[in-house]
């Protein structure tokens, strides 16, 4: 048991557990009225989310014990399978409503959520294998652009802009962490920026979201419906909130599906600025702990995996909250570990399981180092002690003579 505690990153466990508890409370509070109408049971959505949390936690435990170096053999098959699922989404859902255009198997699986984690694993393996050659344009930047371009383009066709943006930014982050030449990183950013401008001009959805963001900045009263309802919830909450379960913005005519993308607004309404600040601080603590684990990782693969997972979850949290407060265009992404949803919850907890594995590898490295140092000290003492006894013996012999 003591050995297990030494290998477990306790601060990270407490942070993740706190976020999950807050998330489950928020999901129940924001979904009970909908569950009563749809399932004739106030806990319908909540119990489903509990199941996803348990499933994701089980996956996290397994991956925390799975040596991350073994991903070298699995990265390519995982990436090919994920791209296959993304293509399948496009083929099967061509004529479906937008609400289900990103999902498979009756809207229960969203491959774009899995793609974020698989992209981290694949890029980690690829960058670690090419580390000595990354500064070569033909081996570093060009293949990187192809990998990111194919994955992001398929996701964007669905369309899932937030997932596509996340995958691209993950690529840039990992490319930087791998030690790539700064000129290549700047060139990569410029190319992606140009692609972003192109997407803006050819995509009505992108134009609408950015235009709504600009209008909301200039005239908050004319912001998009989603943002206005979120602002109302935050204002109603005040400093201490109206009380858990007592918010009104979640009811019909208020925030759409408040237990998913808009759940932060419900937390702010019911627990006030204090509760919302606690939630933000927990995410900042997660980013701090993940960054620490990445810095302490025993090798480049561990550093990239931990850094990628930390950036992914931290970025999605910031993007979700900023979108609701009109500090960024609404992206439509979930709030990690808080929003209801199976694919996002399981994928996020799987990533956290990998983060735990990197942390355990660092603990094992420290334990091995301490063990070697201890054995060396004991051995040195033994040798020195032997010499002292030997010298005394020789001196005694000379005196007796």
Automatic annotation (TrEMBL):
Residues passing through the membrane, by range: 12-30, 50-68, 75-93, 136-155, 161-178, 185-203, 272-292, 304-328, 334-356
Protein's membrane topology: Multi-pass membrane protein
InterPro entries per record: FtsW/RodA (IPR001182)
Record's keyword terms, sorted: Cell shape, Glycosyltransferase, Membrane, Peptidoglycan synthesis, Transferase, Transmembrane, Transmembrane helix
GO molecular function: lipid-linked peptidoglycan transporter activity; peptidoglycan glycosyltransferase activity
Primary site of residence: membrane
Pfam families the record matches: FTSW_RODA_SPOVE
EC number(s) reported in the record: 2.4.99.28
Entries under PANTHER family matching the protein: CELL CYCLE PROTEIN (PTHR30474), PEPTIDOGLYCAN GLYCOSYLTRANSFERASE FTSW-RELATED (PTHR30474:SF2)
Protein family per UniProt: Belongs to the SEDS family. FtsW subfamily.
Reported function: Peptidoglycan polymerase that is essential for cell division.
Protein name listed in UniProt: Probable peptidoglycan glycosyltransferase FtsW
Source organism of the structure: Ornatilinea apprima
């Amino acid at each position: 048991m003591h050995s297990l505690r030494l290998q477990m990153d306790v601060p990270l466990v407490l942070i993740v557990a706190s976020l999950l508890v807050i998330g489950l409370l928020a999901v129940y509070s924001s979904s009970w009225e909908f569950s009563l109408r749809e399932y004739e049971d106030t806990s319908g959505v909540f119990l489903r989310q509990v199941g996803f949390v348990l499933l994701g936690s089980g996956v996290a435990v397994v991956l925390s014990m799975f040596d991350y170096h073994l991903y070298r053999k699995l990265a390519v098959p995982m990436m090919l399978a994920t791209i296959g699922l993304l293509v399948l989404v496009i083929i099967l859902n061509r004529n479906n409503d937008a609400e289900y255009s990103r999902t498979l198997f009756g809207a229960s699986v969203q491959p774009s959520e899995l793609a974020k984690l698989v992209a981290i694993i694949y890029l980690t393996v690829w960058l670690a294998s090419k580390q000595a050659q990354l500064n070569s344009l033909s081996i570093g930047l060009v293949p990187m652009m192809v990998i990111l371009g194919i994955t992001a383009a398929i996701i964007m066709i669905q369309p899932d802009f937030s997932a596509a943006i996340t995958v691209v930014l993950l690529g840039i982050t990992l490319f930087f962490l791998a030690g790539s030449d700064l000129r290549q990183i700047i060139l990569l950013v410029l190319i992606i920026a140009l692609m972003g401008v192109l997407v803006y001009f050819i995509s009505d959805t992108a134009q609408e979201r950015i235009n709504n963001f600009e209008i909301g900045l200039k005239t908050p009263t004319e912001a998009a419906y989603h943002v206005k309802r979120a602002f109302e919830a935050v204002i109603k909450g005040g400093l201490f909130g109206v009380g858990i379960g007592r918010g009104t913005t979640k009811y019909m005519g208020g925030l759409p599906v408040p237990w998913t993308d808009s759940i932060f607004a419900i937390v702010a309404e019911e627990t006030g600025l204090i509760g919302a600040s606690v939630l933000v601080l927990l995410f900042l603590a997660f980013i701090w702990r993940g960054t620490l684990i990445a810095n302490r990782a025993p090798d480049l693969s561990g550093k990239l995996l931990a850094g990628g997972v930390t950036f992914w979850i931290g970025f999605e949290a910031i993007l979700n909250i900023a979108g609701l407060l009109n500090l960024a265009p609404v992206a439509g992404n979930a709030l990690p570990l808080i929003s209801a949803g199976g694919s996002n919850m399981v994928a996020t907890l799987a990533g956290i399981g990998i983060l735990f594995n990197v942390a355990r590898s660092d603990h094992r490295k420290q334990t091995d180092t301490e063990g070697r140092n201890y054995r060396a000290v004991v051995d040195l003492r033994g040798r020195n002690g032997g010499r002292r006894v030997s010298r005394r013996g020789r001196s005694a012999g000379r005196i007796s003579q």
